[in-house]
């Protein structure tokens, strides 16, 4: 197994998730460490295991162990989902919704003055609060229906700073870690951190994978608090022999 994910490997994983090809996903996940794509691919693994694909149960067990050992926000909720499909736990009492977790995380992580939005509970579609790119938005009176719409707050917490701290800790005693610790200790912490990291493309890519996992996990935890869990559109999931 490779030491880490390259862009081609991640592209294959995302492609399998997009086309919802269970066999292709399980094959793609052998190209890199599961610990770096748990939140990204966990729902796909759960769906593959639920449908009884060969080797899916083993992959679900691998994911489950990695989640329990990592303990990021949202990992517990995903672990419960995987435990339920492997028969080790009851099915979580959360309503499935086919939401774009990347988009949801982006809206949740944004500035309260510029981000946030609403989630269409009937389709799983995320609508930004302000977007000039949207050609059409639902009529204002429709968005007042609490049975259909869930407001997405822009939290802008210290989570992003904590992500940088944890990433630096994961670098160990490397010289890069020392530079980054100094960078986040003063003003303009985010800018200085990114300026330094930009000179090391391998670490830059690793940082973005790390943040993606953390942000997706926070989005999953927020959904669970609201009574929902992300899911794949069941009717489109395919099994390739």
Considering the chains and any ligands shown, give keywords for the structure:
241 residues, mainly alpha, 3 domains, two-stranded parallel ribbon, 10 helices, globular
Protein model, in words:
This protein has 241 residues and is mainly alpha-helical. The protein has three domains: 7-96 and 232-236; 98-156, no CATH class; 159-222, no CATH class. Helices cover 51% and strands 7% of the residues. It contains ten helices and five strands; from the N terminus they run H-H-H-H-H-E-H-E-E-E-H-H-H-H-E. It has helices at 7-19, 22-28, 38-50, 56-70, 75-85, 101-109, 159-170, 175-183, 189-197, 201-225, and strands spanning 95-97, 117-120, 126-128, 149-152, 228-230. The strands form two sheets. A three-stranded antiparallel sheet has the order 3-2-4. A two-stranded parallel ribbon has the order 1-5. Strand 2 (117-120) and strand 3 form a beta hairpin. The radius of gyration is 19 Å and the shape is globular.
Question: What is the CA-atom radius of gyration, in angstroms?
Answer: 19 Å
The pLDDT mean sits at 87
Tell me, briefly, the overall form: globular
| Uncertain residue ranges | none
Q: Characterize the main sheet.
A: 3 strands, antiparallel
**Estimated helix fraction:** 40-55%
Q: What class, by secondary structure content?
A: mainly alpha
